[in-house]
Amino acid sequence: MTHLVLDKVSVHYDGQPAPAVENVSIEIAKDDFVVLVGRSGCGKTSLLNVAAGLVEPVRGRATIGGRPITAPGSDRAVVFQNDALFPWLTARENVAFALRLRGVRAAERARTADDLLALVKLDGAGDKRIWELSGGMRQRVGLARALAAEPQFLLLDEPLGALDALTRERMQTMLLDLWTASQVGVLMVTHGIDEALVLATRIIVLAPGPGRVVWSFETGFSRRYAAGEAIRSIKADPAFVAARSELTDAIFEGEAA
Amino acid sequence: MTISSYTERPQRSNIDDGADALSVPWSRPPPRRSRVSARMVSAITILVVLAAWTVSARLQLVSPVFLPSPVAVWNKFVVVARDGFVDATLAQHIAASLWRVFAALIAAVFVGVPIGLAIGVSTIGRGIFDPLLEFLRPIPPLAYLPLIIIWFGIGEPSKILVIAIAMLAPVALSTASGVRGVSKDRINAARSLGATRRQVIRQVILPSALPSILTGLRIALGAGWSTLVAAELVAATRGLGFMIQSAAQFLVTDVAVMGILVIAAIAFVLEFIIRRIERVLVPWAGRE
Question: What ipTM describes this predicted complex?
Answer without folding.
Answer: 0.87
